[in-house]
């Protein structure tokens, strides 16, 4: 088993259009999550380390989608001080 790696930071959401369409021409978008610390956690998990990502996310579907995306790429545990939205 690899070493334990903990990253702290924010996660970003990127919306991109399918193909080469312009943003205003598209009715649907591809969602990709990333950010420096999140990317490091994913890379470390891919190399067999226990990767943890600590951040603060809103308590709604987009926040849960970000958690799911990181887990899908091997980040084993994500510490989330969840914030309720107004």
Oligomer kind: single chain
Overall pLDDT = 89
Helix/strand/pairing category = alpha/beta
- SSE series: EEEHEHE
InterPro entries: PfkB_dom, Ribokinase-like
GO molecular function, one term: catalytic activity
Organism: Bacteroides cellulosilyticus DSM 14838
Protein name: Carbohydrate kinase PfkB domain-containing protein
Structure overview:
It holds the Pfam family PfkB. InterPro entries: PfkB_dom, Ribokinase-like. This is Carbohydrate kinase PfkB domain-containing protein. It comes from Bacteroides cellulosilyticus DSM 14838. The protein has helices at 36-46, 61-72; strands at residues 4-8, 12-16, 30-34, 50-54, 77-79. With 86 residues, it is an alpha/beta fold. Strands 1-4-5 form a three-stranded parallel β-sheet, with helices on one face. A two-stranded antiparallel sheet has the order 2-3. 16% of the residues are buried. The model has no long low-confidence stretch (mean pLDDT 89).
What's the SSE blueprint?
Layout: E1 4-8, E2 12-16, E3 30-34, H1 36-46, E4 50-54, H2 61-72, E5 77-79
């Amino acid at each position: 088993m690899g070493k334990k790696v903990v990253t702290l930071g924010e996660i970003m959401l990127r919306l991109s259009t399918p193909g080469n369409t312009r943003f205003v021409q598209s009715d649907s978008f591809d969602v990709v999550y990333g950010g420096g610390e999140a990317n490091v956690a994913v890379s470390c998990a891919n190399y067999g380390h226990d990767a943890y990502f600590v951040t603060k996310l809103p308590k709604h579907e987009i926040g849960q989608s970000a958690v799911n995306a990181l887990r899908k790429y091997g980040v084993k545990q994500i510490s989330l001080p969840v914030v309720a939205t107004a």
